[in-house]
Amino acid sequence: MVIVIHQTKSTENAFLYNEKKVEQKVASFFHSRNTKAINPFFYNKNHRLKEFTDIDKLNPRIKNKCLHISLNPSTEDCQKLNDKTIRVEIDEFMKYMGYKKQPYFVYKHKDLERVHFHIVSTRIDCQTGLKIKDSHERQKAQKFIHQFNCKYQIQQNKSKEDIAFKFSPHGRNLKQSLEHLFQFLNQLECINSKALYDEALKQFNVEIRKSGKGHVVVVTNDKEEPIRYPIRLSKFREKPHFLGQETKKLEVQTNKAILKSSHNSLLMDFVKELNWHLKYQDIKNQKGKKYKTRKKRYSKRL
């Protein structure tokens, strides 16, 4: 199990991101709790969004209002758990993290060639209007994973599968946060192609873009507009694995192209030289024929 805690400031942006995935038919409505309507997915998205906007108005001074978490079950988890059990475990997870009474929506995603779940809620207490404490969330999530594995007798793979990760694009040391993100994605076995790697980066509003002869890492908002200064990829110690493989492939392709072009140039030089040699021989033969005809004419006169 991989649990990712996204540090998104706007609850509306996180909500609309998941709703857009549903509209694109790469995600579906999966679960909800503590909402005004019995089945909130029966109504339109504006009705669901009002669940959060009404609570956000209780305390407009809080900046990081959104709770956006993605749960990524491993292949072993999916074999042992069905949808009903996963719903129960999501409720247990929210209770364990301190959001038992908060309204939240759960979306089932299939856009990364594997099933994973996104939970959207608010950090503002719906009863008191105060912010729910979010300290040590990563440690809490890690303990929940351990309890989850023991409960369902799932073999623990500490370095590969069972990870709780928290990423913030708004921190002071952005370079260090991005290196932790690359390190986190590099050790996930489920991300086995560059397309999946790029899609996973977009989950954190991070993109790798071509700039001149190299690449830059850009942190964007939901409209794909940069919100922080781009950082050269060459400055990172920990780099995306798939980008490195891609650059190696490009180098091999360019080397082959250079060899091919040099081979073609040598061949062209040889052809030019051969054509010149044949032309020279033809001119020499023609001169020889002229000389013989002149000699015959002169001998007849004598």
Structural notes for this entry:
- Helix 1 packs antiparallel against helix 2 (about 45-55) and helix 4 (about 85-95) packs antiparallel against helix 5 (about 135-150).
- Strands 2-4-5-3-1-6 form a six-stranded mixed sheet, sandwiched between helices.
- It has eight helices and nine strands.
- It folds into three domains: about 1-165, BirA Bifunctional Protein, domain 2; about 175-240, no CATH class; about 240-300.
- With about 300 residues, the chain is α+β, with helices and mostly antiparallel strands.
- It is globular and about 85 Å long.
- The model has no long low-confidence stretch (mean pLDDT about 80).
- It starts with a strand and ends with a helix.
In short:
The protein is an alpha+beta fold and 302 residues long.
Secondary structure elements and their pairing?
Layout: E1 2-6, H1 11-23, E2 27-33, H2 45-56, E3 66-72, H3 75-80, H4 83-97, E4 104-109, E5 116-122, H5 137-151, E6 163-167, H6 174-186, H7 194-202, E7 206-211, E8 214-219, E9 231-232, H8 241-301
Parallel strand pairs: 1-6
Antiparallel strand pairs: 1-3, 2-4, 3-5, 4-5, 7-8, 8-9
Computed over alpha carbons, the radius of gyration is 33 Å
Q: Which class of the largest domain in CATH terms? A: Alpha Beta
Please write the string of helix (H) and strand (E) elements.
EHEHEHHEEHEHHEEEH
**Proportion of residues in β-strands:** 15-25%
- Mean pLDDT score, rounded? 79
Which sequence of strands runs across the widest sheet?
2-4-5-3-1-6
Main pleated sheet: 6 strands, mixed
Number of strands: 9
Shape: globular
Q: Which fold name is given in CATH as the topology of the largest domain? A: BirA Bifunctional Protein, domain 2
Into how many domains do the coordinates divide? 3
CATH architecture of the largest domain: 2-Layer Sandwich
As a percent range, the share of helical residues equals: 40-55%
Label the structural class.
Answer: alpha+beta
Q: Would you identify the regions where 5 or more consecutive residues have pLDDT less than 50?
A: none
Pfam families: Relaxase
Organism: Marinifilum breve
Domain MobA/VirD2-like nuclease: 37-153
Protein name: MobA/VirD2-like nuclease domain-containing protein
